[in-house]
Amino acid sequence: MKRTLTFIVLCKDAGDSKEMAHALSNHPGCSLLTISDDTEQVFTETRKLHPSAVIVNLAHMGELAIKLVQRIVTECPTTAVICASRDSSPDLILKSMRTGARDFMRLPIIQDELKTVVERTAQFVEEHVSNEPKKGGRATAVFSAKGGCGTSLIATNLALLQKSPTVLVDLNLQSGDLELLLGLKPKFSLADVVDNRDRLDDALLASYITPHSKNLSLLAAPIKAEAGEDIEPKHIYEILELLRHRYENVILDTPHSFDSVTIAALDHADQILVVLTLEIHAIRTTRRALDIFDRLGYPRKKVKIVVNRWSKNIELDQKQVESFLGERVVGFIQSDYKAAVNSINLGQPLVTSAPGSKVTSDLQSLAATLFDGHIEMPAPGPGGRRALNSIFRRQTNNMQDLGLVTALDRASLGEAQ
């Protein structure tokens, strides 16, 4: 599947709602945005979120469901409509098709039928992709399956290196602190945008975003942790769509878990930068994350691997790590603890607090790779950057002496079991 399919469901029966939510959430490449028993809410959400498909359960809904199908078909032509019911009589199927539905799904769900419906929906989406409103900005999610790998620091510096209008979004809803890395004191946050989403216009959206420099602004995490509890995946979709039309680059600092909000952000991203450090736990959790990406239907070309805190003292073979992950490493950022801590304490990203450092040079090279060279390049520092194919070049017998080869082998065996 080339892209994640998003669904909104109209259903009045609690049992049917639970069944459809479970089936869609567990089907590769599918993401459920919301379920509602209100036809007006479903129509409004469809207009805002532009899902791949709306599933309309006809049971207990009568003419309201039929009218909803007609409205979506007429006013949201890039969204497929799928009718569903426990009554699969020819008359009902024919009526739904005449109304404009593209498919009919019998309940309880039959896996083979669901697979066929999903495949047809994917085909519909591909056929209509050229007719969709063109997304303005490009969204990049910075993610790590393990905490402490430096995702926030990397996301902040990549954002500051952009030479076009960029917004940095802190999706760590309970513990976000990007404002500290940028030396800002935001008055508003993502929670304010969500609370006022029904009346958002360009000016109001801009008022909730904190400017940092000529090309960089921050949409901060909720100031109070409890304010993040009401933020849902559909809100993330809607807000990211708005941000894409205002900014050329949207950079997302994501949590280290696969909760529904994180998945919504990853679904929406054009590219996912996966950050790891070269220790066994981080490498192993990264491979698990890649497996989850595969099940979510993300194409591997969407995923970019970067190694953070590389040091010449690390005795791991690059080819072996790449073989274990099944993915090539696109960039390496050298370890510089002193510069990183100084950057955090000053509230200044590394590219400004240590412009001549090797770690800044690495961040510039990574940004140039990810953003096709469309970045602001501060004055280069001394020392230069080592070629990627030589960074991990070590003697195999030294690695075996340290036991690192067998550690990766054991991790591989553990994953296979």
What report would you give on this structure?
- There is one protein chain.
- The chain is of the alpha/beta class.
- 45% of the residues lie in helices and 17% in strands.
- It is built from 18 helices and 13 strands.
- The strands form two sheets. An eight-stranded mixed sheet has the order 8-9-7-10-6-11-12-13, sandwiched between helices. A five-stranded parallel sheet has the order 2-1-3-4-5, sandwiched between helices.
- The chain starts with a strand and ends with a helix.
Low-confidence stretches: 378-406, 410-417
Q: Report mean pLDDT, rounded to a whole number.
A: 85
Derived from helix and strand composition plus strand pairing, the structural class reads alpha/beta
Distance between the termini: 27 Å
Number of helices in the DSSP assignment: 18
Helix content: 40-55%
Roughly how many Å is the radius of gyration? 24 Å
Layout of helices and strands:
Elements lengths: L4 E6 L3 H12 L4 E7 L2 H11 L3 E5 L5 H13 L4 E6 L4 H10 L3 E4 L4 H18 L9 E6 L7 H10 L5 E5 L7 H5 L7 H6 L6 H6 L2 E2 L4 E4 L13 H14 L2 E5 L6 H9 L2 E6 L3 H17 L6 E8 L7 H8 L3 E6 L2 H10 L3 H4 L4 H13 L25 H7 L1 H13 L1
Parallel strand pairs: 1-2, 1-3, 3-4, 4-5, 6-10, 6-11, 7-9, 7-10, 11-12, 12-13
Antiparallel strand pairs: 8-9
Helix pairs in contact: 2-3, 10-11
